Amino acid sequence: MHLAALNIPQLLTSLWRGQLRSDSVTLEDCSHAYLIGDVWQEHGALIEASKRYLPTSFGRAPRNPAQKINSGYKAWEFMLYIWALGPAVFRPYLSDNHWQHFCKLVRGIRIVEQREIHHTQLQAAHTLLIEWVTEYEEMYYARDPDAIHLVRPCVHLVAHLVPETFRWGPLNLVAQWSLENTIGNLGREVRQPSNPFANLAERGLRRAQVNAAVAIDPTLTINKSYPQASLSISKGYTLLPARDETPYEVLPRENSAILQYLQKARLTLPTDEEELSIIRWGAVALPNGQRARSKWREVLRAPETTRQTRDISGVGQRFGEVQYFFQLNTSEGTRNLVLLSLYTRPDEQLYNSSHQTLYACRYTGSISLLVVEVTTILSVVGVAPLPRCEREIEDNEYLEYVYIIEKPFLSVLELAGLEDEYEEDSST
Protein backbone atom coordinates (compact mmCIF):
# COMPACT_ATOMS: atom_id res chain seq x y z
CA MET A 1 0.00 0.00 0.00
CA HIS A 2 2.60 2.55 1.08
CA LEU A 3 4.93 1.76 -1.82
CA ALA A 4 2.38 2.65 -4.51
CA ALA A 5 0.38 5.21 -2.55
CA LEU A 6 3.12 7.28 -0.92
CA ASN A 7 6.75 6.27 -1.41
CA ILE A 8 7.00 6.09 -5.21
CA PRO A 9 4.66 9.08 -5.85
CA GLN A 10 6.60 11.30 -3.46
CA LEU A 11 9.89 10.22 -5.03
CA LEU A 12 8.76 10.95 -8.59
CA THR A 13 7.18 14.31 -7.84
CA SER A 14 10.27 15.39 -5.90
CA LEU A 15 12.47 14.45 -8.85
CA TRP A 16 10.37 16.21 -11.47
CA ARG A 17 10.06 19.33 -9.33
CA GLY A 18 13.83 19.48 -8.96
CA GLN A 19 13.68 19.07 -5.19
CA LEU A 20 15.70 15.85 -5.40
CA ARG A 21 18.89 16.21 -7.43
CA SER A 22 22.63 15.91 -7.26
CA ASP A 23 24.30 18.34 -4.88
CA SER A 24 26.58 19.50 -7.69
CA VAL A 25 23.72 20.35 -10.10
CA THR A 26 21.70 23.56 -9.95
CA LEU A 27 17.95 23.59 -10.45
CA GLU A 28 18.33 25.26 -13.85
CA ASP A 29 20.75 22.55 -15.03
CA CYS A 30 18.86 19.58 -13.60
CA SER A 31 17.87 17.39 -16.56
CA HIS A 32 14.83 15.86 -14.85
CA ALA A 33 13.35 19.03 -13.29
CA TYR A 34 10.37 19.51 -15.60
CA LEU A 35 7.67 20.73 -13.20
CA ILE A 36 9.09 24.01 -11.96
CA GLY A 37 7.84 27.59 -11.91
CA ASP A 38 4.85 28.35 -14.10
CA VAL A 39 4.89 24.82 -15.52
CA TRP A 40 4.21 23.39 -12.06
CA GLN A 41 1.32 25.82 -11.58
CA GLU A 42 -0.12 24.92 -14.98
CA HIS A 43 0.19 21.22 -14.22
CA GLY A 44 -1.52 21.69 -10.85
CA ALA A 45 -4.44 23.48 -12.49
CA LEU A 46 -4.77 20.60 -14.95
CA ILE A 47 -5.07 18.10 -12.11
CA GLU A 48 -7.65 20.24 -10.32
CA ALA A 49 -9.71 20.56 -13.52
CA SER A 50 -9.83 16.76 -13.86
CA LYS A 51 -12.14 16.43 -10.85
CA ARG A 52 -15.36 16.77 -12.85
CA TYR A 53 -14.29 13.87 -15.10
CA LEU A 54 -13.68 11.45 -12.23
CA PRO A 55 -16.78 9.38 -11.36
CA THR A 56 -18.11 9.60 -7.82
CA SER A 57 -17.07 5.98 -7.24
CA PHE A 58 -13.43 7.05 -7.63
CA GLY A 59 -13.60 8.62 -4.19
CA ARG A 60 -11.77 11.78 -3.28
CA ALA A 61 -10.40 13.51 -6.37
CA PRO A 62 -6.79 14.75 -6.19
CA ARG A 63 -6.45 18.39 -5.24
CA ASN A 64 -4.19 20.86 -7.00
CA PRO A 65 -0.71 19.47 -6.18
CA ALA A 66 0.89 22.87 -6.76
CA GLN A 67 -1.10 24.14 -3.78
CA LYS A 68 -1.74 21.09 -1.60
CA ILE A 69 0.95 18.46 -2.13
CA ASN A 70 2.69 19.56 1.08
CA SER A 71 -0.59 20.06 2.99
CA GLY A 72 -1.77 16.58 3.90
CA TYR A 73 -2.06 15.14 0.39
CA LYS A 74 -3.89 11.85 0.95
CA ALA A 75 -2.69 8.42 -0.13
CA TRP A 76 -5.74 7.97 -2.35
CA GLU A 77 -5.12 11.35 -4.00
CA PHE A 78 -1.63 10.15 -4.93
CA MET A 79 -3.11 6.90 -6.25
CA LEU A 80 -5.42 8.71 -8.66
CA TYR A 81 -2.84 11.35 -9.51
CA ILE A 82 0.01 8.98 -10.38
CA TRP A 83 -1.53 5.67 -11.47
CA ALA A 84 -4.83 6.80 -13.05
CA LEU A 85 -4.15 10.27 -14.46
CA GLY A 86 -0.37 10.02 -14.65
CA PRO A 87 0.29 8.71 -18.19
CA ALA A 88 -1.86 11.49 -19.66
CA VAL A 89 -1.15 14.47 -17.40
CA PHE A 90 2.64 14.06 -17.32
CA ARG A 91 3.04 13.47 -21.07
CA PRO A 92 3.01 17.16 -22.13
CA TYR A 93 5.76 18.05 -19.64
CA LEU A 94 8.22 15.16 -19.45
CA SER A 95 10.67 14.25 -22.21
CA ASP A 96 9.72 11.21 -24.30
CA ASN A 97 12.37 9.10 -22.57
CA HIS A 98 11.30 10.03 -19.04
CA TRP A 99 7.61 9.67 -19.92
CA GLN A 100 7.99 6.22 -21.46
CA HIS A 101 10.17 5.19 -18.53
CA PHE A 102 7.40 6.29 -16.16
CA CYS A 103 4.78 4.40 -18.19
CA LYS A 104 6.73 1.16 -17.72
CA LEU A 105 6.33 1.59 -13.98
CA VAL A 106 2.62 2.37 -14.29
CA ARG A 107 1.99 -0.71 -16.41
CA GLY A 108 3.92 -2.96 -14.05
CA ILE A 109 2.23 -1.62 -10.91
CA ARG A 110 -1.23 -1.90 -12.46
CA ILE A 111 -0.62 -5.57 -13.24
CA VAL A 112 0.86 -6.45 -9.86
CA GLU A 113 -2.00 -4.80 -7.97
CA GLN A 114 -4.69 -6.84 -9.74
CA ARG A 115 -6.67 -9.31 -7.70
CA GLU A 116 -6.43 -11.94 -10.42
CA ILE A 117 -3.20 -12.06 -12.43
CA HIS A 118 -2.37 -14.37 -15.31
CA HIS A 119 1.08 -15.96 -15.41
CA THR A 120 1.96 -14.20 -18.68
CA GLN A 121 0.94 -10.84 -17.19
CA LEU A 122 3.33 -11.35 -14.29
CA GLN A 123 6.14 -12.15 -16.70
CA ALA A 124 5.45 -8.95 -18.62
CA ALA A 125 5.24 -6.93 -15.40
CA HIS A 126 8.55 -8.33 -14.13
CA THR A 127 10.30 -7.35 -17.36
CA LEU A 128 8.90 -3.82 -17.23
CA LEU A 129 9.71 -3.28 -13.56
CA ILE A 130 13.26 -4.59 -13.84
CA GLU A 131 13.79 -2.32 -16.85
CA TRP A 132 12.37 0.59 -14.87
CA VAL A 133 14.77 0.02 -11.96
CA THR A 134 17.78 -0.33 -14.25
CA GLU A 135 16.88 2.70 -16.36
CA TYR A 136 16.08 4.71 -13.25
CA GLU A 137 19.67 4.45 -12.10
CA GLU A 138 20.92 5.39 -15.56
CA MET A 139 18.56 8.35 -16.05
CA TYR A 140 18.46 9.86 -12.57
CA TYR A 141 21.40 8.54 -10.57
CA ALA A 142 23.87 7.99 -13.44
CA ARG A 143 26.34 6.28 -11.06
CA ASP A 144 27.14 9.68 -9.56
CA PRO A 145 28.23 9.36 -5.89
CA ASP A 146 26.82 12.84 -5.24
CA ALA A 147 23.39 11.61 -6.37
CA ILE A 148 23.23 8.36 -4.40
CA HIS A 149 20.39 9.82 -2.30
CA LEU A 150 18.16 9.71 -5.42
CA VAL A 151 18.04 5.92 -5.15
CA ARG A 152 15.72 5.41 -2.21
CA PRO A 153 14.89 1.93 -0.83
CA CYS A 154 11.49 2.01 -2.57
CA VAL A 155 13.28 1.88 -5.94
CA HIS A 156 14.96 -1.39 -4.98
CA LEU A 157 11.69 -2.77 -3.60
CA VAL A 158 10.01 -2.44 -7.00
CA ALA A 159 12.28 -5.19 -8.36
CA HIS A 160 10.91 -7.65 -5.75
CA LEU A 161 7.18 -7.15 -6.44
CA VAL A 162 6.73 -9.91 -9.01
CA PRO A 163 8.92 -12.53 -7.25
CA GLU A 164 6.98 -11.90 -4.04
CA THR A 165 3.71 -12.23 -5.96
CA PHE A 166 4.81 -15.66 -7.21
CA ARG A 167 5.73 -16.53 -3.64
CA TRP A 168 2.70 -15.23 -1.73
CA GLY A 169 0.01 -14.53 -4.33
CA PRO A 170 -1.56 -11.17 -5.26
CA LEU A 171 -0.03 -8.58 -2.96
CA ASN A 172 -3.23 -6.54 -2.73
CA LEU A 173 -4.60 -9.29 -0.49
CA VAL A 174 -2.16 -8.19 2.20
CA ALA A 175 -2.54 -4.45 1.58
CA GLN A 176 -3.64 -2.13 4.37
CA TRP A 177 -6.75 -0.76 2.63
CA SER A 178 -9.12 -3.42 3.95
CA LEU A 179 -7.67 -3.39 7.45
CA GLU A 180 -7.71 0.39 7.79
CA ASN A 181 -11.26 0.58 6.47
CA THR A 182 -12.31 -2.11 8.98
CA ILE A 183 -10.69 -0.17 11.83
CA GLY A 184 -12.64 2.91 10.80
CA ASN A 185 -15.91 0.99 10.54
CA LEU A 186 -15.51 -0.63 13.95
CA GLY A 187 -14.60 2.68 15.51
CA ARG A 188 -17.77 4.26 14.16
CA GLU A 189 -19.84 1.41 15.64
CA VAL A 190 -18.74 2.10 19.21
CA ARG A 191 -21.77 3.28 21.20
CA GLN A 192 -20.58 2.93 24.81
CA PRO A 193 -18.14 5.73 25.68
CA SER A 194 -17.99 4.51 29.27
CA ASN A 195 -16.55 1.16 28.18
CA PRO A 196 -15.34 1.64 24.59
CA PHE A 197 -12.83 -1.22 24.36
CA ALA A 198 -15.29 -3.89 25.50
CA ASN A 199 -17.84 -2.48 23.08
CA LEU A 200 -15.23 -2.50 20.28
CA ALA A 201 -14.30 -6.12 21.04
CA GLU A 202 -17.96 -7.15 20.89
CA ARG A 203 -18.46 -5.39 17.55
CA GLY A 204 -15.36 -7.11 16.19
CA LEU A 205 -16.63 -10.49 17.37
CA ARG A 206 -19.98 -9.98 15.66
CA ARG A 207 -18.22 -8.91 12.46
CA ALA A 208 -16.13 -12.08 12.52
CA GLN A 209 -19.23 -14.22 13.08
CA VAL A 210 -21.01 -12.62 10.14
CA ASN A 211 -17.97 -13.07 7.89
CA ALA A 212 -17.68 -16.72 8.90
CA ALA A 213 -21.36 -17.34 8.16
CA VAL A 214 -21.09 -15.74 4.71
CA ALA A 215 -17.94 -17.75 3.96
CA ILE A 216 -19.79 -20.96 4.81
CA ASP A 217 -22.92 -20.00 2.86
CA PRO A 218 -22.29 -17.27 0.23
CA THR A 219 -26.04 -16.86 -0.29
CA LEU A 220 -26.21 -15.11 3.10
CA THR A 221 -25.21 -11.78 1.61
CA ILE A 222 -26.06 -8.53 3.36
CA ASN A 223 -28.82 -6.65 1.56
CA LYS A 224 -27.63 -3.39 0.06
CA SER A 225 -29.65 -0.25 0.52
CA TYR A 226 -31.21 0.95 -2.74
CA PRO A 227 -34.05 3.40 -3.45
CA GLN A 228 -37.54 1.95 -3.09
CA ALA A 229 -38.21 2.34 -6.83
CA SER A 230 -35.11 0.32 -7.83
CA LEU A 231 -35.36 -3.01 -9.64
CA SER A 232 -32.99 -5.93 -9.07
CA ILE A 233 -32.41 -7.76 -12.34
CA SER A 234 -29.70 -10.46 -12.27
CA LYS A 235 -26.06 -11.20 -11.43
CA GLY A 236 -25.97 -8.46 -8.82
CA TYR A 237 -27.10 -5.63 -11.13
CA THR A 238 -29.89 -3.27 -10.03
CA LEU A 239 -31.69 -0.62 -12.07
CA LEU A 240 -32.02 2.68 -10.22
CA PRO A 241 -34.38 5.64 -10.73
CA ALA A 242 -35.27 7.97 -12.36
CA ARG A 243 -37.63 5.96 -14.54
CA ASP A 244 -40.02 6.80 -17.37
CA GLU A 245 -43.68 6.97 -16.34
CA THR A 246 -44.80 6.40 -19.94
CA PRO A 247 -43.09 4.54 -22.82
CA TYR A 248 -40.33 6.49 -24.53
CA GLU A 249 -40.47 7.14 -28.28
CA VAL A 250 -37.03 6.23 -29.60
CA LEU A 251 -35.19 8.33 -32.18
CA PRO A 252 -34.39 6.88 -35.64
CA ARG A 253 -30.72 6.04 -34.94
CA GLU A 254 -31.62 4.60 -31.54
CA ASN A 255 -34.29 2.51 -33.26
CA SER A 256 -31.72 1.15 -35.70
CA ALA A 257 -29.36 0.20 -32.87
CA ILE A 258 -32.14 -1.61 -31.01
CA LEU A 259 -33.22 -3.51 -34.13
CA GLN A 260 -29.60 -4.55 -34.72
CA TYR A 261 -29.47 -5.94 -31.20
CA LEU A 262 -32.71 -7.87 -31.74
CA GLN A 263 -31.40 -9.30 -34.99
CA LYS A 264 -28.08 -10.33 -33.47
CA ALA A 265 -29.78 -11.89 -30.44
CA ARG A 266 -32.35 -13.56 -32.69
CA LEU A 267 -35.22 -11.95 -30.85
CA THR A 268 -38.45 -10.43 -32.09
CA LEU A 269 -40.98 -8.01 -30.71
CA PRO A 270 -44.31 -9.34 -29.43
CA THR A 271 -46.64 -10.01 -32.33
CA ASP A 272 -49.23 -7.56 -31.01
CA GLU A 273 -46.77 -4.65 -30.92
CA GLU A 274 -46.05 -2.69 -34.10
CA GLU A 275 -43.62 -0.18 -32.57
CA LEU A 276 -40.81 -0.29 -30.04
CA SER A 277 -41.97 0.31 -26.50
CA ILE A 278 -39.25 0.97 -23.93
CA ILE A 279 -39.04 2.25 -20.38
CA ARG A 280 -35.86 4.18 -19.63
CA TRP A 281 -33.93 4.03 -16.35
CA GLY A 282 -31.47 6.63 -15.14
CA ALA A 283 -28.74 4.50 -13.50
CA VAL A 284 -27.62 1.01 -12.55
CA ALA A 285 -25.79 -0.42 -9.54
CA LEU A 286 -22.94 -2.76 -10.50
CA PRO A 287 -21.81 -5.82 -8.50
CA ASN A 288 -18.48 -4.11 -7.72
CA GLY A 289 -20.24 -1.33 -5.77
CA GLN A 290 -20.07 1.33 -8.49
CA ARG A 291 -23.04 3.24 -9.91
CA ALA A 292 -23.24 3.93 -13.63
CA ARG A 293 -25.47 6.83 -14.55
CA SER A 294 -26.85 7.93 -17.91
CA LYS A 295 -26.46 11.00 -20.10
CA TRP A 296 -30.26 11.27 -20.13
CA ARG A 297 -30.27 12.23 -16.44
CA GLU A 298 -26.77 13.58 -15.91
CA VAL A 299 -27.04 16.46 -18.40
CA LEU A 300 -29.87 17.87 -16.28
CA ARG A 301 -27.41 18.61 -13.46
CA ALA A 302 -25.13 21.62 -13.23
CA PRO A 303 -21.89 20.59 -15.03
CA GLU A 304 -19.65 22.58 -12.70
CA THR A 305 -20.84 20.58 -9.67
CA THR A 306 -21.41 17.17 -11.31
CA ARG A 307 -18.76 14.47 -11.53
CA GLN A 308 -19.28 12.62 -14.80
CA THR A 309 -20.33 9.04 -14.08
CA ARG A 310 -21.83 7.83 -17.33
CA ASP A 311 -18.89 6.15 -19.09
CA ILE A 312 -18.33 2.41 -18.80
CA SER A 313 -16.02 -0.41 -19.84
CA GLY A 314 -16.78 -3.99 -20.74
CA VAL A 315 -18.23 -3.87 -24.23
CA GLY A 316 -15.84 -6.27 -25.94
CA GLN A 317 -12.89 -4.39 -24.41
CA ARG A 318 -14.39 -1.13 -25.68
CA PHE A 319 -15.54 1.95 -23.80
CA GLY A 320 -18.86 3.71 -24.20
CA GLU A 321 -21.00 6.55 -22.90
CA VAL A 322 -24.37 5.46 -21.49
CA GLN A 323 -27.25 7.26 -23.17
CA TYR A 324 -29.82 5.49 -21.03
CA PHE A 325 -30.73 2.11 -19.58
CA PHE A 326 -34.03 0.60 -20.65
CA GLN A 327 -36.30 -2.39 -20.58
CA LEU A 328 -37.59 -3.88 -23.82
CA ASN A 329 -40.44 -6.34 -24.19
CA THR A 330 -39.52 -9.12 -26.63
CA SER A 331 -40.93 -12.46 -27.64
CA GLU A 332 -38.60 -14.06 -25.07
CA GLY A 333 -39.63 -11.76 -22.23
CA THR A 334 -38.32 -8.46 -20.89
CA ARG A 335 -34.68 -7.61 -21.60
CA ASN A 336 -32.61 -5.17 -19.52
CA LEU A 337 -30.47 -3.22 -21.95
CA VAL A 338 -28.26 -0.16 -22.26
CA LEU A 339 -27.84 2.18 -25.21
CA LEU A 340 -24.20 3.22 -25.63
CA SER A 341 -22.34 5.71 -27.75
CA LEU A 342 -19.00 4.01 -28.36
CA TYR A 343 -15.58 5.61 -28.21
CA THR A 344 -13.13 4.76 -30.96
CA ARG A 345 -10.41 2.22 -30.32
CA PRO A 346 -7.29 3.66 -28.63
CA ASP A 347 -4.78 5.50 -30.79
CA GLU A 348 -2.16 2.84 -31.53
CA GLN A 349 0.85 5.15 -31.40
CA LEU A 350 0.05 6.49 -27.92
CA TYR A 351 -1.13 3.09 -26.73
CA ASN A 352 2.10 1.36 -27.70
CA SER A 353 4.52 4.14 -26.72
CA SER A 354 2.84 4.35 -23.29
CA HIS A 355 3.23 0.59 -22.77
CA GLN A 356 -0.55 0.13 -22.89
CA THR A 357 -1.29 2.68 -20.16
CA LEU A 358 -2.81 5.54 -22.19
CA TYR A 359 -6.13 4.99 -23.96
CA ALA A 360 -6.62 8.03 -26.21
CA CYS A 361 -9.92 7.85 -28.12
CA ARG A 362 -12.47 10.03 -29.88
CA TYR A 363 -16.13 10.39 -28.96
CA THR A 364 -18.49 9.25 -31.74
CA GLY A 365 -21.78 10.65 -30.41
CA SER A 366 -24.82 9.28 -32.21
CA ILE A 367 -22.73 7.99 -35.12
CA SER A 368 -21.80 4.74 -33.41
CA LEU A 369 -24.63 3.53 -31.16
CA LEU A 370 -24.71 0.06 -29.68
CA VAL A 371 -27.26 -1.81 -27.57
CA VAL A 372 -26.01 -4.51 -25.17
CA GLU A 373 -27.20 -6.31 -22.06
CA VAL A 374 -26.75 -4.33 -18.84
CA THR A 375 -24.90 -7.30 -17.35
CA THR A 376 -22.03 -6.85 -19.85
CA ILE A 377 -20.92 -3.68 -18.04
CA LEU A 378 -17.79 -4.34 -16.01
CA SER A 379 -16.97 -0.99 -14.41
CA VAL A 380 -17.41 2.76 -14.52
CA VAL A 381 -14.54 4.78 -16.01
CA GLY A 382 -13.67 8.45 -16.31
CA VAL A 383 -13.24 10.25 -19.62
CA ALA A 384 -11.32 13.55 -19.80
CA PRO A 385 -9.92 15.74 -22.60
CA LEU A 386 -6.45 14.57 -23.63
CA PRO A 387 -3.72 17.04 -22.56
CA ARG A 388 -1.52 17.93 -25.54
CA CYS A 389 2.03 19.19 -25.82
CA GLU A 390 2.87 22.45 -27.60
CA ARG A 391 3.88 20.73 -30.85
CA GLU A 392 0.59 18.82 -31.03
CA ILE A 393 -1.38 22.01 -30.43
CA GLU A 394 0.50 23.80 -33.23
CA ASP A 395 0.00 20.88 -35.65
CA ASN A 396 -3.62 20.27 -34.57
CA GLU A 397 -2.78 16.70 -33.57
CA TYR A 398 -5.11 14.75 -31.25
CA LEU A 399 -7.71 17.48 -31.53
CA GLU A 400 -10.93 16.52 -29.67
CA TYR A 401 -9.30 13.38 -28.28
CA VAL A 402 -10.16 12.13 -24.81
CA TYR A 403 -8.42 9.61 -22.58
CA ILE A 404 -9.88 6.83 -20.46
CA ILE A 405 -9.35 6.88 -16.68
CA GLU A 406 -9.82 3.53 -14.98
CA LYS A 407 -10.13 3.36 -11.21
CA PRO A 408 -6.81 2.07 -9.90
CA PHE A 409 -6.86 -1.17 -7.96
CA LEU A 410 -10.66 -1.43 -8.06
CA SER A 411 -10.67 -5.06 -6.89
CA VAL A 412 -8.66 -4.07 -3.80
CA LEU A 413 -11.34 -1.62 -2.76
CA GLU A 414 -14.02 -4.24 -3.38
CA LEU A 415 -12.32 -6.27 -0.65
CA ALA A 416 -12.57 -3.26 1.64
CA GLY A 417 -16.32 -3.09 1.03
CA LEU A 418 -16.27 0.48 -0.28
CA GLU A 419 -19.29 1.47 -2.35
CA ASP A 420 -20.29 4.42 -4.47
CA GLU A 421 -22.42 7.00 -2.71
CA TYR A 422 -25.62 7.32 -4.72
CA GLU A 423 -27.91 10.35 -4.79
CA GLU A 424 -31.39 9.21 -5.68
CA ASP A 425 -32.79 10.91 -8.77
CA SER A 426 -36.51 10.43 -8.42
CA SER A 427 -37.62 13.05 -10.93
CA THR A 428 -39.15 11.92 -14.22
Q: Outline of this structure?
A:
This protein is α+β, with helices and mostly antiparallel strands and 428 residues long. The chain has helices at residues 2-16, 38-49, 65-68, 75-84, 86-89, 96-112, 119-141, 153-158, 161-168, 176-189, 196-216, 252-264, 295-298, 348-353, 390-394, 410-416, and strands spanning 231-232, 238-243, 278-285, 291-293, 311-313, 319-330, 333-342, 360-362, 369-373, 379-385, 401-405. The chain is built from 16 helices and eleven strands.
Outline the fold blueprint.
Blueprint: H1 2-16, H2 38-49, H3 65-68, H4 75-84, H5 86-89, H6 96-112, H7 119-141, H8 153-158, H9 161-168, H10 176-189, H11 196-216, E1 231-232, E2 238-243, H12 252-264, E3 278-285, E4 291-293, H13 295-298, E5 311-313, E6 319-330, E7 333-342, H14 348-353, E8 360-362, E9 369-373, E10 379-385, H15 390-394, E11 401-405, H16 410-416
Antiparallel strand pairs: 1-2, 2-3, 3-4, 3-6, 5-6, 5-10, 6-7, 7-9, 8-11, 10-11
Helix pairs in contact: 1-4, 6-7, 7-9, 10-16
Please tell me about this protein's structure.
The protein folds into 3 domains: 173 residues, no CATH class; 41 residues, no CATH class; 186 residues, no CATH class. It is 39% helix and 15% strand. The protein is built from 16 helices and 11 strands. Strands 1, 2, 3, 4, 5, 6, 7, 8, 9, 10 and 11 form an 11-stranded antiparallel β-sheet that branches. Helix 6 packs antiparallel against helix 7, helix 7 runs antiparallel to helix 9 and helix 10 packs parallel to helix 16. The longest helix has 23 residues. The chain is globular and about 80 Å long. The two termini are 43 Å apart.
